[in-house]
Design goal:
Layout (H helix, E strand, L loop, with lengths): L1 H17 L4 H4 L10 E8 L7 E6 L4 E5 L31 H13 L8 E2 L15 E9 L2 E8 L10 H15 L4 E3 L7
């Protein structure tokens, strides 16, 4: 009987170690871990494409790394600068607050992010079985307490109804919306993570 109990406990211990990061383990006593690191990324294989990473650190600072290539110049980009009716840009915050970071962590949990696979290319059972080669890939990653969980979706395929695509995109869009009101520092060199 003792050997059976030890065996069962050993299996539970092994499973606990093998489980990916979960939201319950991120917030310790409601505090943001010092190693919290969130990455929102967009990439593409198209010749003229936007590619970038937004990186959020545990102190709420946001960093922007642009890897876009061969984008044509926008002829209207300077139009507002020379207009008599200048548009006033909203005042941006220096960083996300601890409350906002805590809410983002809870949003990761509510979305089912920690139960998602690392990569999705589409549901092979969708109608017509069509995928396109040149499409964007959106990715999210969260690191905390020495663990990392990453999920990415290739957006060139159809996805089945049971796919977590909608939950993933809702989370992605929430993070992107939070970043719109925060000053982003351009990265001269990559951050450690």
């Amino acid at each position: 009987m003792k050997k059976t109990n030890q065996f069962v406990l050993g299996i539970f211990y092994f499973i606990a170690l093998a489980l990916p990061i979960s939201s319950q383990s991120i917030l310790k006593d409601g505090k943001i871990p010092k190693d919290l690191f969130i990455v929102l990324s967009l990439s593409s294989t198209i010749q003229f494409s936007s590619e970038y990473d937004y990186k959020i650190t545990s102190d709420g600072k946001a960093f922007f790394e642009d890897r876009s290539h061969n984008l044509p110049a926008n002829p209207n980009s300077g139009a507002l600068l020379h207009s008599k009716n200048k548009v006033k840009n909203p005042k941006l915050r220096e960083r996300l607050s601890q409350r906002q970071l805590s809410q983002l962590i809870r949003d990761f949990e509510k979305s089912g992010f920690f139960e998602m696979n690392e990569y999705y290319q589409g549901d092979p059972g969708f109608k017509e079985g069509v995928c396109i080669n040149h499409a964007q890939r959106k990715g999210l990653s969260i690191s905390a307490n020495g663990k990392t969980k990453s999920v990415a979706f290739f957006l060139g395929c159809g996805y089945g109804e049971k796919s977590p695509l909608h939950s993933f995109l809702n989370l992605y869009n929430k993070i992107e919306k939070e970043l719109q009101n925060v000053k982003k520092e351009k990265l001269e060199k990559p951050l450690n993570k």
